[in-house]
Write a structure and sequence with these properties.
The protein is mainly alpha-helical and about 160 residues long. About 70% of the residues lie in helices and about 5% in strands. It is built from eight helices and two strands. The protein has a two-stranded antiparallel ribbon with strand order 1-2. α2 packs across α5 and α3 crosses α4. The longest helix is centred in the middle third of the chain and has 23 residues. The two termini are about 35 Å apart.
Length: about 160
């Protein structure tokens, strides 16, 4: 029996801090940037009140987070106080939205009762390679509907035995 290599176990917060040190963005900053990206793709810019309304936070909280994203180089203001994406903001925002969409579709495929909520909860914890592998797995099921059907039949059989 082969032995697993030694691992550095951490608490959830420990893993969050490690990831934050590697990426510069906290999960909260990622959420703000993802939403700013969504809004700027619709109308080329956004405003604090629109951002805070969609994220269900106070405008003062949104202002602080936007200021941090401006400082980090992801967003900028124009002369009318519109929030705009920088090139880095577009690139990162696009990735964050794609990551979210992959996970929401994945949880939908798994018949999760709350795919949006589950995607929001786990998207910040998974690594880029894991997201890529989930995307590949979903594409495999799409390109092989017979295997997808076999999986559904298996899931139904397992769920029947649990009841």
């Amino acid at each position: 029996m082969s032995q697993l290599p030694p691992q550095e176990f951490r608490t959830v917060r420990g893993y969050e801090l490690k990831k934050q040190n590697e990426s510069r963005l906290t999960p909260a900053l990622e959420d703000y940037l993802e939403m700013a990206y969504r809004l700027c793709m619709e109308e080329s810019c956004t405003r604090i009140n629109r951002l805070s309304g969609l994220l269900h936070v106070r405008p003062s909280s949104a202002s602080k987070m936007v200021a941090k994203l401006v400082q980090l180089g992801y967003l900028r203001y124009d002369s009318l106080e519109n929030i705009l994406l920088t090139d880095e903001g577009k690139l990162t925002g696009n990735y964050l939205l794609e990551r979210h969409n992959v996970l929401e579709r994945f949880f939908t495929m798994l018949k999760s009762p709350r795919p949006l909520e589950e995607a929001e909860l786990v998207e910040h914890m998974l690594g880029d390679l894991t997201i890529l592998e989930i995307k590949v797995l979903m594409e495999f099921f799409i390109q092989n509907p017979d295997i997808g059907k076999q999986f559904e039949n298996f899931r139904n059989m397992v769920n029947c035995t649990k009841e």
